[in-house]
Fold this sequence. Notes:
Blueprint: E1 15-20, E2 22-26, E3 30-36, E4 47-55, E5 65-70, E6 73-81, E7 84-88, E8 93-96, E9 101-105, E10 110-116, E11 123-131, E12 142-146, E13 153-156, E14 159-165, E15 167-170, E16 173-176, E17 187-192, E18 198-203, E19 209-216, E20 218-221, E21 226-229, E22 232-236, E23 242-246, E24 251-257, E25 265-267, E26 270-272, H1 275-286
Antiparallel strand pairs: 1-22, 2-3, 3-4, 4-11, 5-10, 6-9, 6-11, 7-8, 7-10, 9-12, 13-14, 14-17, 15-16, 15-18, 17-24, 18-23, 19-22, 19-24, 20-21, 20-23, 25-26
The structure holds manganese (II) ion.
Residues 65, 68, 70, 75, 112, 114 line the site of manganese (II) ion.
Amino acid sequence: MNGSSDKSSFTTRSVVEVMQATPASDGDGVRLLRVFGGNNLARFDPFLMLDEFGSTEPRDYIGGFPPHPHRGFETVTYMLEGKMEHRDHMNNIGLLDAGDVQWMKAGAGVIHSEMPRQEEGRMRGFQLWVNLPAAEKMTAASYRDIAAADIPAYNLDGVQIKAIAGTLQVNGKELTGAVQGNSTQPAYLDIHAGTEATELVAVIPESHTALIYVYEGKVAIGDQRTGIQARQLARLSPGQQLRLSLEAASRVLLIAGKPLGEPIVHYGPFVMNSRAEIEQAIADYNAGRLVG
Ligand code: MN
């Protein structure tokens, strides 16, 4: 760095890994695409999993996700199309409609169901898992529905951006998402290119993990202009700015957050810091003590 304010002096993020979303089944036979998740999660810190679900075939989604537990992290469900109903042990009932987001902190424990409220038509969306710091894993569960109308929407040079979470600067404009104040400082944008190819430059804290998931179209990332296609995830290097060239009509998620740097032990619906804490979660669930 030479201290110049020249834009070219900023370090630009590059693609360090490309992952292909792979078909998987979860819940009661719901067919989805797992973008990442499972093991070796440290490089995605603070994120733990990203699923894309989408089908016009009711048999692919109608089984839903009957009651199941979580402990130790947050789940973020973002619906693009269709209707999903959430019910939990705290007696929350929420209907997620197209464009809505549900941000749930499992904390010490939640038992919930996520069931389709449609018998035909297209169901489409994403679920992201965000880790909690050790100090917050055993805090009380909480749940928040954010209606589509309450998610800030921006138009930057013909690109439509929905700011679900975080605060970051894109093409010189500060975008403020609906969700703020979490310790992992998550940023979550849904970006839709318009009818022309467009370049965005985003400023994200240099050391934060940054991911780009392309769900329609094609983009090029960084000074090397690495091409990323639909159903691919790009994990990016650290850097002071992100250069994203979108082909016309491309649709991508930009997800970024502050790494926790703590041990991650993942077993099914539980994500803790040690094997002993996982064993405790299983024992608590089996004894009916996971919640309340
Ligand atoms: Mn769940």
